[in-house]
Amino acid sequence: MDGSDQSKMMVMKKRKPMRVMVAMDESDFSFHALKWALDHVFVTPEPAAEKTEEASPEEVDMVVLVHVQEPFVHYGFPAGPGGTAVYATTTVVESVRKAQEENSAALLSRALQMCKEKPNIKAETLMLEGDPKDRICQATEQMHVDLLVVGSRGLGTIKRAFLGSVSDYCTHHAKCPVLIVKPPKETAK
């Protein structure tokens, strides 16, 4: 068997379908990361001329779009003379939660639409509540993902120290490889 026959054999070898999680938020950075992953991580091989059958669902790459909304915490605040504490009513709390869920659903729907444009990829969404850093890392472990993709806001060292960084935290705590997609050069500051 010469070198060209060996390379043909390697191409014909089946690869394990990838399970990739992409962390989504309201920023353009997360949508840039999703687009980058769809264009570069999920490379569709050229179909062989003689092979025309559809891939089974077990052979298709999977992308899990995860959005973590922080829990709504209604604090009491002093109002009026004497500093009487005022708390949000149940209807206000429910209204805020409903708005958060609607925003999350719209965000994930937009991301899901981007995935539908890519052939041979199955996509699903996951909406969680809690601290994004912790919940994303927990989800990667529970779902046995092969790769976590997160966008980077391009924060400097000082801002990152004060604000924290989901991408930085995930690189140190996720139980899978993490790919941080930096913002495009024209928007990075």
TrEMBL record:
Family annotation (Gene3D superfamilies): HUPs (3.40.50.620)
InterPro entries to which the protein is assigned, alphabetical: Rossmann-like_a/b/a_fold, Universal_stress_UspA, UspA
Domain UspA: 19-182
Protein's UniProt name: Universal stress protein A-like protein
